[in-house]
């Protein structure tokens, strides 16, 4: 199939041909034939567009239906629900109900296991209420903004970039769009995130972007800070904010954490906690909310040694990479490559960043993200902060498109430098040289006796100012004193005239055994809610044999309950065994739910399938005679007969995912399924 662009060019060429023939006074027959050809090319293009539109509409409708079925299950089963529902709810705030809480706790526990425990990270928990100076130092007070516009009539608020993006999409769908204009708009689309206020204003006007629904004019765009301001204490004197990310709590504790770690680098600290962003347009359920759980890691490393000691363990893992180069190519496509190759070819900046990208991939696989719908997209140059060495987002495809769920960035020394500068506390590490080095250093020696006599109480700030001089300034002062007998020195207490006898400045060779340096930070930042929503989408399906049977194929690691236990019929003997089974399993750490309702076994299975419970144990009459029960696996509906004494061990292995169902049950008697 020809591309739309090629078709458009054919239409343009046919149009140009008609104009040329008219200009050169060609015969009416020739002109009529050219007009005919133009009409034909236009028709082909229009029919192609109609087909695409239809396919697009059908796809959008299918996605809508899928989402409505899924949210029916998720909200109906209380995985999550809009907060404060009885008061009408508030956009961007959600409650997790019982199964949602259980899944979230499991995702977090697994995250802790996979990262904090396996990597010996230092976990911290810091308050969400954060004093203003901390967030001013980090740049959030000044820069944590989105550009906002209002409908001039209704005053409704919108994110300017969202409206512009939608408008550009609409304009790009126009088949008659000139090639130059198309390129211009595509270029603008790629730069939307970086547009400054004035550029956004121009872009909105240039594209004639209006308010949705009302089609009213929009206000000029203006920055809106996403942080929730608050005051700490009753006087209102101490300003603060609810933190927009958990990371800052780790940076400000760097010195103590380094000490705790015996002064050794590299090390990583981690935190799981709530973050708050007053999003202008919260949407798409859990994907963009105003309060959410983040799990963040700050890995501190020497800026010249970003190798990772465990890199070899992950080097062969294949990642779906969407590098800068791939995004800028004519055909934009991610590619598969091992993380080892990506680092050695310089696609990923260093081993430590590569290591965390690979570990993130393993984490997402283990909780049930479909590998075909996961990619790591590198930030384009203009998306990256000036200090960042390299950034990648783990993007998961769901019905809303590709969604950033984890940000992985090499932030160099930016954060520690920023807090050092503002707090006046050195956030540095010390490195001992393998062999000491000789270095010429400046030594400034103020003559305290003469200074004391001459300046009395001002001698102290003068001494400090002399000691703070850099090499060039110190020698310049010395020269000025020699030439004019005295020279001016600026201090915190004002300006003073100092003379050559008041200080001595010289360069001496010193042996240095080490030095202080500011470590770089590599930061993987996970949004738990976004990951969970994508995980739910990937887990959701309808059994092919029955439209009514919806299933969440949550992996055992994250499933809210690991097994249900059913007595086949309501019978005292069977109930006793089921109760006993329940006790054994829960005391072995396997969460179980006893279901003694009298409904059919098929219905009971369907109920637990919808909750994502991976296994079911059924107690039947045979259990009373030979001490066995059946164990069923949710997705295959396979059942095996297992001695009751072995069920805890079997489910333990399956839930830890150290064995597959086929491996773990190979030796057990298979049994016909009883789903109906
Ligand atoms: N409003 C939100 N709702 C839910 N999760 C969020 C929200 N904002 C950020 N996150 C999660 O926190 C992670 C790290 O935050 P980060 O600051 O990198 O996001 P971001 O780049 O600002 O996200 P976006 O551009 O989508 O607003 C994101 O990858 C995402 O999973």
UniProtKB/TrEMBL annotation:
<dbReference type="InterPro" id="IPR002315">
    <property type="entry name" value="tRNA-synt_gly"/>
</dbReference>
<keyword id="KW-0175">Coiled coil</keyword>
<keyword id="KW-0030">Aminoacyl-tRNA synthetase</keyword>
<keyword id="KW-0963">Cytoplasm</keyword>
<keyword id="KW-0436">Ligase</keyword>
<dbReference type="InterPro" id="IPR000738">
    <property type="entry name" value="WHEP-TRS_dom"/>
</dbReference>
<dbReference type="InterPro" id="IPR033731">
    <property type="entry name" value="GlyRS-like_core"/>
</dbReference>
<dbReference type="GO" id="GO:0005739">
    <property type="term" value="C:mitochondrion"/>
</dbReference>
<dbReference type="Pfam" id="PF00587">
    <property type="entry name" value="tRNA-synt_2b"/>
</dbReference>
<keyword id="KW-0067">ATP-binding</keyword>
<dbReference type="InterPro" id="IPR004154">
    <property type="entry name" value="Anticodon-bd"/>
</dbReference>
<dbReference type="InterPro" id="IPR006195">
    <property type="entry name" value="aa-tRNA-synth_II"/>
</dbReference>
<dbReference type="Pfam" id="PF03129">
    <property type="entry name" value="HGTP_anticodon"/>
</dbReference>
<dbReference type="GO" id="GO:0016740">
    <property type="term" value="F:transferase activity"/>
</dbReference>
<keyword id="KW-0547">Nucleotide-binding</keyword>
<comment type="subunit">
    <text>Homodimer.</text>
</comment>
<dbReference type="GO" id="GO:0005524">
    <property type="term" value="F:ATP binding"/>
</dbReference>
<keyword id="KW-0808">Transferase</keyword>
<feature type="domain" description="WHEP-TRS">
    <location>
        <begin position="3"/>
        <end position="59"/>
    </location>
</feature>
<dbReference type="GO" id="GO:0070150">
    <property type="term" value="P:mitochondrial glycyl-tRNA aminoacylation"/>
</dbReference>
<keyword id="KW-0648">Protein biosynthesis</keyword>
<keyword id="KW-0966">Cell projection</keyword>
<comment type="similarity">
    <text>Belongs to the class-II aminoacyl-tRNA synthetase family.</text>
</comment>
<dbReference type="InterPro" id="IPR027031">
    <property type="entry name" value="Gly-tRNA_synthase/POLG2"/>
</dbReference>
<feature type="coiled-coil region">
    <location>
        <begin position="4"/>
        <end position="55"/>
    </location>
</feature>
<feature type="domain" description="Aminoacyl-transfer RNA synthetases class-II family profile">
    <location>
        <begin position="92"/>
        <end position="544"/>
    </location>
</feature>
<dbReference type="InterPro" id="IPR036621">
    <property type="entry name" value="Anticodon-bd_dom_sf"/>
</dbReference>
<feature type="coiled-coil region">
    <location>
        <begin position="178"/>
        <end position="205"/>
    </location>
</feature>
<dbReference type="InterPro" id="IPR002314">
    <property type="entry name" value="aa-tRNA-synt_IIb"/>
</dbReference>
<protein>
    <recommendedName>
        <fullName>Glycine--tRNA ligase</fullName>
        <ecNumber>6.1.1.14</ecNumber>
    </recommendedName>
</protein>
<dbReference type="InterPro" id="IPR045864">
    <property type="entry name" value="aa-tRNA-synth_II/BPL/LPL"/>
</dbReference>
<dbReference type="GO" id="GO:0004820">
    <property type="term" value="F:glycine-tRNA ligase activity"/>
</dbReference>
């Amino acid at each position: 199939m020809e591309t739309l662009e090629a078709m458009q060019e054919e239409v343009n060429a046919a149009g140009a041909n008609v104009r040329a023939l008219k200009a050169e006074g060609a015969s009416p027959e020739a002109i009529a034939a050219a007009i005919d050809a133009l009409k034909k090319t236009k028709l082909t293009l229009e029919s192609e567009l109609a087909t695409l539109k239809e396919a697009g509409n059908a796809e959008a409708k299918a996605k809508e239906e899928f989402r409505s079925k899924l949210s029916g299950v998720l909200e109906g089963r209380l995985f999550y629900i809009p907060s404060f529902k009885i008061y009408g709810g508030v956009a961007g705030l959600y409650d997790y109900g019982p199964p949602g809480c259980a899944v979230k706790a499991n995702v977090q526990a697994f995250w802790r296991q996979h990262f904090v425990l396996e990597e010996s990270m230092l976990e911290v928990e810091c308050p969400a209420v954060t004093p203003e100076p901390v967030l001013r130092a980090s740049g959030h007070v000044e820069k944590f903004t989105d550009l906002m516009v209002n409908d001039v009539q209704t005053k409704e608020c919108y994110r300017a970039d969202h409206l512009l993006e939608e408008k550009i999409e609409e304009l790009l769908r126009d088949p008659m769009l000139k090639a130059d204009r198309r390129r211009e708009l595509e270029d603008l689309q790629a730069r939307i995130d970086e547009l400054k206020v004035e550029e956004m204003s121009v872009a909105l006007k240039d594209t004639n972007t209006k308010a949705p629904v009302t089609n009213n004019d929009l206000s000029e765009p203006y920055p809106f800070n996403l942080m929730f301001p608050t005051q700490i204490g009753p006087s209102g004197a101490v300003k603060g904010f609810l933190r927009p990310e958990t990371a800052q709590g780790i940076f400000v504790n760097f010195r103590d954490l380094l000490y705790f770690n015996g002064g050794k680098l590299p090390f990583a600290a981690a935190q799981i906690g709530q973050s708050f962003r007053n999003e202008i347009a919260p949407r798409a359920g859990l994907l963009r909310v105003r309060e959410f759980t983040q799990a963040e890691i700050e890995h501190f490393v020497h800026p010249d040694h970003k190798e990772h000691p465990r890199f070899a363990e992950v080097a062969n893992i294949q990642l779906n990479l969407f590098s800068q180069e791939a995004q800028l190519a004519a055909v934009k496509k991610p590619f598969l490559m091992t993380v080892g190759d990506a680092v050695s070819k310089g696609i990923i900046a260093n081993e430590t960043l590569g290591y965390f990208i690979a570990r993130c991939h393993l984490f997402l696989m283990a909780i049930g993200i479909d590998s075909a719908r996961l990619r790591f997209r590198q930030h384009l140059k203009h998306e990256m902060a000036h200090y960042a060495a390299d950034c990648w987002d783990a993007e998961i495809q769901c019905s809303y498109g590709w969604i950033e769920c984890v940000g992985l960035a090499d932030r160099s020394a930016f954060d520690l430098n920023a807090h050092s500068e503002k707090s006046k506390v050195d956030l540095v590490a010390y490195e001992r040289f393998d062999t000491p080095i000789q270095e010429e250093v400046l030594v400034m020696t103020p003559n305290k006796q003469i200074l004391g006599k001459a300046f009395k109480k001002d001698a102290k700030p003068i001494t400090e100012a002399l000691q703070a001089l850099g090499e060039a300034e110190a020698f310049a002062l010395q020269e000025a004193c020699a030439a004019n007998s005295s020279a001016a020195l600026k201090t915190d207490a004002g300006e003073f005239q100092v003379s050559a006898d008041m200080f001595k400045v010289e360069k001496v060779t010193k042996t240095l055994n080490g030095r202080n340096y500011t470590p770089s930070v590599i930061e993987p930042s996970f949004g738990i809610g976004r990951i969970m929503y994508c995980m739910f989408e990937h887990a959701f399906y309808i059994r092919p044999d029955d439209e009514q049977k919806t299933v969440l194929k949550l992996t055992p690691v994250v499933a809210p309950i690991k097994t249900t236990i059913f007595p086949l019929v309501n019978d005292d003997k069977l109930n006793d065994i089921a109760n006993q089974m329940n006790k054994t399993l829960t005391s072995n750490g396997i969460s179980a739910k006893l279901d003694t309702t009298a409904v059919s076994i098929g219905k009971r299975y369907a109920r637990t399938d919808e909750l994502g419970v991976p296994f079911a144990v059924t107690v039947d009459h045979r259990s009373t005679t030979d001490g066995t029960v059946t164990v069923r696996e949710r997705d295959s509906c396979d059942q095996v007969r297992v001695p009751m004494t072995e069920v805890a061990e079997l489910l333990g292995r399956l839930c830890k995912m150290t064995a597959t169902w086929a491996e773990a049950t190979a030796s057990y008697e298979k049994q016909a399924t009883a789903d109906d």
